[in-house]
Amino acid sequence: MQRFAERLKRIVFGSPIATDSARPETLRTRLALAVFGASILSAVAYGPDALIDALESAHQRGAIPYMAAGVVGIMLLLGAAYASQVSAFPNERGDYGLVRDKLGRRWGVITGASLLTDYVFTVAVSIAALTEVVVFAFPHTAHWMRAIALGVLAVMTLANLRGIRDRVRVLVTVWNGFLVVVIAVVVLGWLRRTEGAVPSSPADAPETWPLLVAYAGAVASGAVMATGVEHLASAGPHHAEPRGTRAARTLLIAVTASAAAFLGVSLLAWTHGVSDFGNGPVVVQVADRVLRHEAAIWVVIVSVAAILYAAASAVFRRFSRISSLLASDTFLPRQLTMRNDRLVLRGGILAVAVLSAVVLVASGAQIERLIHMYIVGVFTSVVLGQIAMVRWASNRIALATEPRESVALHARRALHIAAGVVASAVLVVTATFNFANGAWIAVVCIVVLVLLMHGIARHYAKVRADLAVPADGHATALPSATHGIVLVAQLHRPALRALAYAKAARHSTLKAVSVQMDRGATAALEKRWTQLEVGVPLVILDSPYRDLVGPVLDYVRTLHRSSPRDAVVVYVPEYLVGRWWEQLLHNRSTARLRAQLLQVPNVVVAAVPWKLESARQAAPVLEPEDPALSPDPST
Q1: Tens digits of per-residue pLDDT, 41-97?
Q2: Whether the Cβ atoms of residue 371 and residue 404 lie closer than 8 Å to each other
Q3: CB atoms closer than 10 angstroms to residue 224
Q4: Cα–Cα distance for residue pair 460/463, rounded to 1 Å
Q5: Contact 392, 102 (CB under 8 A)
Q6: Alpha-carbon torsion 461, 101, 232, 16, what sign?
């Protein structure tokens, strides 16, 4: 069974990877665009949908061009700000590391919680959008959206647990392929705008509707296009030297390309009368009306699905990395810093998979429900990141000696102030107008996660203080004596082995202990004990209520009370089995007893293993001579 499980693990997850064989890969700009730019470019698959949905709900479809231009302006501003940030701090910690270092750990925790929340919703939104694409291609699957989404998530999780390294050429094909497809659709749509265009209805008169509310909500909804900027800004270490310059260049190109694609798709949706979420992703609907050829439509569908998959898969890795950084700072369980034999941060992968699955099931994989929860997390981190950059620039200005350097730093500070103000406005508008539609869920998740991380940090601080070596450097005093106790249920080879190990330890006293559950069995044990001349006194503990754990605990506590400075070592024979179902048949009582004994001060529990036949067959090893059959070491 163990061999079969090991082979299955190798097939599913792959062979182990040695630590020394893993070398960080650095990329040039044209390759880094494809590897790290999928997150922001994939937003073209659902960003126009959010914008159009917000405007149509307010009967302001005619304002699509202006609102799309506003979203593009936000993207370009944030892109310039993050290009400035990554050129100054080309590391993988992103906003979390920057805010933690410049504003303090408390604000760093808020940033980390916001990013983790954003990443969970990013995976859910990307998979929900991919599910919409599948339903558009196969309309009869509309009733299976949850199942499709969970299936895609399972495949993605397995691929990330295996640690499949995305081939750069594949990602280049996906990224460039999607961009080329969008450019082709936009160009053809513009050339054919007189053939299939639908006369657009002008926006209602300002006096008949709340202009500010509708426009602000539309721009905030369309701002989902900027949610991939932070992921790009954390890719600095993966660029070739000079890292800061190359990372900033990659970020600007990716943001500009995504903004242009978003604007083109939005304008075509406006001119061709494409609706919102109801009939499938807007980019696919636009392609359907523009191309009017089944094969061409399938090319668009495949390219959209590929870019969404690549984006969600990249977020898996980013989530695991941020959670690892937070865990190394004691804000999350330290297990999240551990890599498995495939060098994968398995804890983070499983965490984002489980949380995304919960979100997808709760929302029915409906992207129109998820989109309102999406922006709060990332824009919280954006605002705090820009505040940290303003402080950094101010500190540098105070130290600047050259006039040219001072002017450049003042310009950068102004850029980050503007980006922070705009991001704050988007965050406030989103949290206000989309609060009832689901933004409150993101707010609650961030607050709960912040409180949880502070609680974990306090726990680790207490443990660290509790485990610290005293200032005088003295180790714990040695026990005055050690007493050995061997638990014996019946006299068989496992019990003899435990006795042999206990004798070899040369304790101050050594006794075998058996709990009397049945008088006949106890009498037989005593008789057999005398016949074999074991050389260790046998103590029988009476148990009138047939309890195994209680009498042993009372006996051990009695020893401890009589000599508090003495140590007691309890030897417990245990069976090793080769089949999973055999675990249900053995070691149940000893497991409970061991857990209780570990709570008694100055008590050490030693498990003495004995392999049953099934275990020996599953993993045959060269067994040493059985100490139970060896001469008594005390003689």
Answers
A1: 999 988 888 888 878 776 777 788 888 898 899 999 999 999 999 998 887 788 899
A2: no
A3: 25
A4: 5
A5: yes
A6: negative
φ, ψ (nearest 5 deg) of residue 603: -120, 130
Q: How far apart (Å, rounded) are the C-alpha atoms in residues 450 and 603? A: 38
Is 366 in a helix, a strand, or coil? coil
Contact 320, 123 (CB under 8 A): no
* DSSP three-state, residue 530: helix
> Are 119 and 322 contacting, i.e. CB atoms less than 8 angstroms apart?
yes
DSSP 340-367: -TTS--HHHHHHHHHHHHHHHHHHTT-H
What is the Cα–Cα distance from 306 to 341, expressed in whole angstroms?
28
* Token couple for 535: 């050389």
Select from 184, 179, 129 the least CA-distant residue to 303: 179
In degrees, rounded to 5, the angle at the alpha carbon of residue 451 between the alpha carbons of residues 446 and 455 is 145
Q: Is the bond into 210 cis (omega within 30 degrees of 0)?
A: no
In sign, the C-alpha dihedral spanning 555, 559, 564, 568 is negative
Extract the tokens encoding 428.
């406030």
Q: What is the Cα–Cα distance from 410 to 404, expressed in whole angstroms?
A: 10
CA distance 64 to 100: 39
Tokens in use for 556?
């051990």
| CA–CA distance, 393 with 626 (Å, rounded to integer) | 72
Q: How far is CA 45 from CA 176, 262, 281, 427, 470, in A?
A: 15, 9, 6, 22, 59
Which residue has 């620039």 as its token pair? 393
Q: Is 246 helix (H, G, I), strand (E, B) or coil?
A: helix
Instruction: Please check the confidence at residue 197 and state whether its pLDDT lies above 50.
Output: no
Q: 60 near 210, Cβ under 8 Å?
A: no
Other C-beta atoms closer than 10 Å to the C-beta of 443 total 16
Whole-angstrom CA distances from 555 to 454, 607, 610 are: 42, 19, 25
Is residue 426 within 8 Å of residue 223, measured between CB atoms? yes
The tens digit of pLDDT for each residue in 421-478 reads 999 998 888 888 778 778 889 999 999 999 999 999 999 999 998 888 777 656 567 8
Cβ(418)–Cβ(79) below 8 Å = no
Residue 321 to residue 334: CA distance in whole angstroms: 13
Contacting residues for 201 by C-beta, under 8 A, at least 6 apart: 61, 62
End-to-end CA distance of the chain: 42
Q: How confident is the model at residue 276 (pLDDT cuts 50, 70, 90)?
A: low
What b-and-e string marks burial along 471-505, b requiring 16 or more CB atoms within 10 Å of the CB?
A: eeeeeeeeeeebbbbbbbbebeebbbbbbbbbbee
